């Protein structure tokens, strides 16, 4: 897909096809990259704003999905409820791609994260991947941990106790032998061992108690001082958006991969749409 875009700009793999996108939660990268991916493949998108749809009139998710299926060949859905994917699988007559279901999963982000690691480091096998920040609510972390089950990697988890990885995913990593370290501090030893430092923001929107959010939001801040302990080949990744957890000064370090990560996402989502929607 990358070579095709570089050579042709727009491909015609999905010419005549229509993708509907419906986001019940805010999105910049996921919604825009799916829109761009569809257009790069020669198709068209219809973006539905829930604020201006019949959702505000009380329309159910299943009826909204049935409606969009009348107009498009596939749907990208982001929804705050974790069981929204089950509703989509049950009621939608056309394919539905999960653009994020609450704080549980974000599978297409996992695909582009894995692709980023391979492109940046040449392989996924044999690496040590460190996850930092809000591991409890970080759906991108949850999905990537599950995808990494198919690879020979080691995993380190760094978070405040209140934001620890959900027990089921942690137990999965332990059972596979991949989990080698858990810590509430991002020490120099942990950074030095890392091939990938995967940072996440503390998600304000998931907190009922904003005072607790304020206490936790700046627990870990990655800056140039942090990177002094890191390997020259290490990459810093972030699903974005970021707040203060990665300092702006890191942007100018060659190890900062999070903006390249976004571009890789375009190609991954193009490939996914082609697989799902090509005639």
The CATH superfamily of the largest domain is Aspartate/ornithine carbamoyltransferase
Mean pLDDT: 94
Beta content comes to 15-25%
The number of E-state strands comes to 9
- The helix-strand sequence is HEHEHEHEHEHEHEHEHHEH
Known CATH architecture of the largest domain = 3-Layer(aba) Sandwich
Structural class: alpha/beta
Tally of domains: 2
Instruction: Kindly report the spatial arrangement of strands forming the biggest sheet.
Output: 7-6-5-8-9
Rounded radius of gyration (Å): 19 Å
**Helical percentage:** 25-40%
Number of helices: 11
**Low-pLDDT ranges:** none
Described by the principal axes of the CA atoms, the overall outline is globular
- CATH topology of the largest domain: the name is Rossmann fold
Ends distance: 17 Å
CATH class designation of the largest domain? Alpha Beta
Main sheet specs: 5 strands, parallel
Plain-language structure description:
Strand 5 (128-132), helix 6 (139-147) and strand 6 (154-158) form a beta-alpha-beta unit. The two termini are 17 Å apart. The protein is globular and about 55 Å long. The longest helix has 20 residues, at 258-277. It is α/β, with parallel strands linked by helices. Helix content is 38%, strand content 16%. The protein folds into 2 domains: 2-102, 3-Layer(aba) Sandwich (Rossmann fold); 107-262, Rossmann fold (3-Layer(aba) Sandwich). Helix 3 packs across helix 4 and helix 5 crosses helix 6. The strands form 2 sheets. It has a 5-stranded parallel sheet with strand order 7-6-5-8-9. Strands 2-1-3-4 form a 4-stranded parallel sheet, with helices on both faces. The chain has helices at 2-8, 29-40, 61-69, 84-91, 107-121, 139-147, 167-176, 188-193, 210-216, 224-227, 258-277; strands at residues 18-23, 44-49, 74-79, 96-101, 128-132, 154-158, 179-183, 196-199, 235-237.
